[in-house]
Amino acid sequence: MLIQESFKTALISLSANKTRTFLTLLGVVIGVFAVVSLVAIGKGAQNYITKEFDALGSNLLFVSPGSGDFAGDPALQLTKNPLEEKHIKLIQNYANEHIVAISPYYVIGETAEYKTKNFFAEITGVNVESIKMFNYNVTQGREFTTVEEKNSSKVAIVGPQIQKELFENVNPLDKLIKIGGDSYKVIGVFEEKGDNYDDQIIVPYTSAENTFKLENYSSIIAKVDSTENVKISMKQVELALLRDLDEESFAVLSQEDILNTIQETLGIVTLGISLIAGISLLVGGIGIMNIMLVSVTERIKEIGLRKALGATPIQIGV
Hints:
single chain, alpha+beta, six-stranded mixed beta barrel, 12 helices, 10 strands, 52% helix, elongated
């Protein structure tokens, strides 16, 4: 009976002070929302990054120009890009113990056109081996061949986003799209891999060189036979490239290295969000304490009267 009476008294008090009740609930909601959002954002970002790396492939090494410091100026690193075909040959000759595939890698942002439609795509120039290296599954058409690569043939494999934006319900195979002033024939479509891949147009790296007048690779990518051999292969590749380059002009990174760098950046962002959430909780808590203090102050006479009549703290509700 006492519980029912206390509950009834609480409802009457809440109804009598609707604005105060609303503000109290708002403080609680903001605090809880801040904490829940922090956890959700952090977990979601981690899952997204892991998914993107899984889609990329496994046991991959990346040779990039510059020091490999992602916090540096990317434009400055690209202007000092020394990576050429001879460096792939150095890796093949002196670091091929555990490497099962290697490819030049060009990436260019360019508008692709088909008739009256256009779409800003990521043009990826690679060799024949890279299609399987990156786990691209061509569901329509075919992959380009070694002969097409050697002849710098203007052929392309498009992602599902390109198919949707340029062709809609039209079969894209054997259609001509214009990239960088040249016409490329679509020979294949790969299945969905994720937001960072579906807007790609994959072409032979030799074709990309001719179309965009490229001389230095954006990077060199190699696949190692097993996870256990990634570290030793990184060292072998580094020693091979040091035969021609100085150590400041390139960096050899594994997927784990890149993932750790991104996770460190994500940690800083999470810390910032945590501070915001902490401030929200503090402000909300102060507001709630202030409202509770006012509520108790207003009930001083009521509480005094109840105590004089012999009511216990539980019966009073304080």
